[in-house]
Specification:
The structure holds 2 protein chains of 2 kinds. Chain A is of the alpha+beta class. Chain A has helices at residues 4-7, 56-67, 104-107, 118-124, 175-183, 196-205, 236-245, 248-255, 277-280, 290-303, 323-337, 350-359, 375-383, 397-408, 412-429; strands at residues 12-15, 20-23, 31-34, 37-41, 82-89, 92-97, 137-143, 147-152, 166-170, 209-214, 218-224, 260-262, 310-317, 341-348, 364-370, 432-438, 440-445, 448-449, 467-468. In chain A, helix 11 links the parallel strand 13 (310-317) and strand 14. The two termini of chain A are 26 Å apart. The mean pLDDT of chain A is 91. Chain B has one domain (88-308): MetI-like (MetI-like fold, Orthogonal Bundle), CATH 1.10.3720.10. Chain B contains 12 helices and no strands. Chain B has helices at residues 2-29, 34-39, 45-54, 61-73, 88-123, 128-142, 145-160, 175-209, 212-219, 224-261, 267-276, 280-308. Classes of the chains: A alpha+beta, B mainly alpha.
Chain lengths: 470, 315
């Protein structure tokens, strides 16, 4: 769990889902002077938790630090094509970009754009270990890998938040222990899941729990290695064949017993941008009639030179490391075996799978990814040529051009239509067979009011309005 | 005696060198780039390269190994790859008391169960008490500690809505709360050892009780309990002690899972986290530390032989 957003503030923040952006450190949303200039105004008297002033210089320092190429931040792109940051006074920050950047405002609300204290970082060094933020909480005690206790930040810029005086985050590595702790009311909330029988058993064991059902921003994916070195999946026809052979409904039933929907290139968490479900389920690979899909898939495999099927190295992790990856790989192994596609599972741990992703050392992989709040982050990194998150080495000039174009298109409707166009191309190229968007269930103790289940990396809204009923 | 101890301590060096070799190279065989694992999947190639350079990971493995062993000779276990300036030794010493206490509780429970059970089982051979002790000891041996631990943790939650405490309290902060943390994990971990020690005591005692000198003692009118405690037990204990010494390794290994189940912040849990994060220096440091502890415990066991049997001489 990313605890940073509870400790730091950003210029803006997301409210609940991904629909509304609200001011955080600022007095309001930024003023957009022209296509490349944004001016933010800080609230008066914003302070860090130690009481030192948080000024425009700290914001400038933070953005320039992220944007600096030598720092090699994986979130560098979130600062946009930054040309300059001006601070005419202690409360005003003007960002000048070298070209329009559509996600600039929403990226300034993500959990990664936490405002640092220039003075603190200058003194502590670039690899500082302590925390000095301006978020709703400060750390009162911490045992690495065991627990972190928070208490209210007396200098938080919003005097009405947070409601709880203290929070205690525990690290519980064992899944059965975690469930037992929830059942015994030792925890007010815990990570969510998609195993229906587990959810039902816990609800039956503890009547104080309430079940919150919610969408996710995570895909279940069957990633295919599109690099030229991969003799199978460099051929688009083989990727299309796999996409057709997979029975998404069956996959969903096996892997996520809580149900969900088949997923396209954009998850239904981004409902504004995703291909509508009614439309998606008429597409090859998604349509209810699998016979036609299978017939087409066999023809494609034959045309690609694999009429009798193919043996593939499929990377996956142990069930203990990630139950979904493991169950997904096993489900697909069974499904595809019927058509001569043999998945040889290479089981490793999470570090092993990350290495395979980085090295491109696999034929295919069952993976869960996502967690983004901004559509650009969701679709750009995994599909743009050369990006770190483009793990299957996919490259397509037309898609690259559209992905770049949506970034500089400020008109929402136009940007949405470009993203739809990208999805159409991706559904034809299928670098990945997008499998499922499961329905997640979060079990929350009834005494915890105002909790918002939040399945993105930035969890600052999760507890922003939460309070405990006595 | 002193000469023997010094000799044994010198023998620790090749053992530990062997441990360092195996640990160091075994960690490198595990698939997964540690720079990638440490920095996350979004890490840029530049960040990965900088990390590798900073930690000397581009050097040949032999150079890396010698650098690490050189540090060990100066009692420097190196720095963790997770975060800056985090000496492995500091973290190991911070977590050690938890693991030590868990092992101690496990040992305590195993001994208070196994000694009476083993003695009664031998003295009352083929009685109901004997059969009960044998069944219970078989159960302790057959059920792995992690299953026992999981059941001990989850069943009370399901039946009574209660779980053992999961917030760690240091012994110096609150001794009662601290010891309460270790009761169930100690039992879960000690059950296996209790089973094997019970069986060992029973078989050793049965053998000793059939010896001539025991018969003589009985013929001389020595009371039954004195025959067992004063004459039989002392001779029966030597192989039992050997088993206990050897089982310390099993106990230390068992802490890895038990600490995770009972959320105890000990070395075992640190080890699991470090393996999954490919924190090589931390894993290596913990393994060397545990190996050293194992060797020392077995040396102490060897030294107690002379106390139990005065005929034993060390040279």
């Amino acid at each position: 769990m990313n605890l940073g957003p509870h400790l730091y503030s950003k210029l803006l923040r997301w409210d609940g889902g991904i629909e509304n952006i609200l001011p955080d450190l600022t007095t309001g949303l930024p003023e957009q002077v022209d296509e490349t200039t944004y001016t933010y105004k800080l609230k008066p008297d914003t302070k860090f938790s130690d009481g030192s002033p948080l000024t425009s210089e700290d914001v400038k320092f933070t953005y320039e630090r992220i944007a600096k190429a030598e720092n090699a931040s994986p979130h560098r792109y979130k600062a946009g094509p930054l040309a300059s940051v001006d601070t005419p006074d202690e409360q005003t920050i003007t960002f000048k970009l070298s070209e329009p950047f559509a996600p600039f405002i929403s990226f300034s609300a993500t959990g990664w754009m936490m405002i640092l204290s220039k003075k603190f970082v200058d003194a502590a060094g670039d690899r500082f270990q302590d925390v000095l933020g301006s978020g709703p909480y400060v750390i009162s005690a911490r045992q690495k890998g065991v627990s972190t206790q928070f208490k209210r930040n007396p200098n938080h810029h919003n005097p009405e938040r947070p409601y709880p005086d203290e929070m205690d985050f525990r690290v519980i590595p064992d899944a059965a222990t975690l469930d037992a702790a929830v059942i015994a009311n030792e925890l007010d909330f815990a990570a969510s899941g998609t195993d229906k029988s587990r959810i039902e058993a816990m609800l039956a064991a503890n009547k104080d729990l309430t079940d919150m059902e919610h969408a996710s921003h995570h895909w279940n994916m069957f990633i295919m290695n599109c690099r030229d070195t991969n003799l199978v999946f460099k051929d688009k026809r083989m990727r299309q064949a796999m996409n057709l052979l997979i029975d998404r409904e069956l996959y969903q039933a096996i892997v996520h017993s809580t149900g969900g929907r088949p997923s396209g290139p954009v998850t239904w968490g981004f409902s504004n941008y995703a291909i509508p479900q009614d439309d998606l389920i008429q597409r090859p690979g998604y349509r209810p009639d699998k016979d036609e899909d299978i017939k087409e898939a066999k023809a494609l495999m034959e045309a690609a030179g694999f009429p009798d099927g193919v043996k593939l190295q499929c990377a996956t992790v142990t069930a203990a490391a990630h139950a979904t990856y493991n169950a997904g790989a096993l489900a697909l192994k069974d499904q595809l075996a019927q058509y001569g596609v043999e998945l040889e599972l290479g089981v490793t741990d999470m570090a092993g799978i990350q290495a395979k992703r980085a090295e491109g050392n696999f034929d295919c992989m069952v993976y869960v990814n996502g967690g983004s709040q901004e559509i650009d982050e969701h679709i750009y990194g995994p599909h743009r040529t050369g990006q770190a998150r483009n793990v299957n080495g996919f490259s397509n000039d037309a898609i690259d051009a559209l992905l770049d174009k949506q970034r500089i298109t400020l008109d929402d409707a136009e940007r949405k239509s470009i993203i739809m166009e990208v999805q159409e191309l991706l559904l034809d190229e299928v670098p990945t067979a997008w499998l499922a968007d499961p329905i997640y269930h979060s079990l929350v103790n009834k005494r915890l009011i105002g909790y918002q289940p939040w399945l993105v990396f930035d969890r600052s809204s999760e507890l922003y309005d939460a309070w405990i009923k006595a | 005696m002193t000469r023997y101890v010094v000799q044994r301590l010198f023998m620790v060096i090749p053992v530990l060198l062997g441990v360092t070799l195996v640990t160091f190279f075994a960690m490198r065989v595990i698939p997964g780039d540690l720079a990638q694992a440490t920095l996350g999947e979004n890490a840029t190639p530049e960040a990965v390269a900088a990390f590798r350079e900073e930690h000397g990971l581009d050097d040949p493995l032999v150079v890396q190994y010698l650098r690490w062993v050189g540090g060990l000779a100066r009692f420097d276990l190196g720095d963790s790859f997770r975060g800056a300036d985090q000496p492995v030794l500091d973290e190991v010493l911070r977590r050690l008391p938890v693991t030590f206490e868990l092992a101690l509780f496990a040992l305590f429970f195993s001994l208070i169960i196994s000694f009476p059970a083993g003695i009664i089982s031998a003295v009352k051979q083929d009685s109901l008490a004997d059969y009960s002790a044998r069944i219970i000891s078989m159960f302790g041996l057959a059920v792995p500690s992690f299953v026992m631990g999981s059941l001990m943790f989850t069943l009370p939650a399901i039946w009574w809505g209660w779980i053992p405490p999961i917030r760690y309290t240091g012994f110096t902060d609150n001794p009662i709360d601290n010891m309460a943390l270790f009761v169930l994990p100690g039992l879960a971990l000690g059950a296996g050892l209790a089973g094997s020690v019970t069986r060992m005591i029973r078989s050793q005692l049965l053998e000793v009780l059939r010896q001539d000198y025991i018969r003589t003692a009985r013929a001389k009118g020595v009371a039954g309990h004195l025959v067992v405690y004063r004459h039989a037990m002392r001779n029966a204990l030597i192989p039992v002690l050997t088993v206990i010494g050897l089982q310390v390794g099993v106990l230390l290994g068992g802490t890895i899972i038990i600490e995770s189940i009972f959320t105890l912040p000990g070395l075992g849990r640190l080890m699991i986290e470090s393996v999954s994060l490919r924190d090589y220096p931390m894993v290596q440091g913990i393994v060397v530390f545990l190996a050293f502890a194992y060797v020392v415990v077995n040396l102490l066991v060897d030294l107690t032989y002379a106390w139990l049997d005065p005929r034993i001489r060390y040279s």
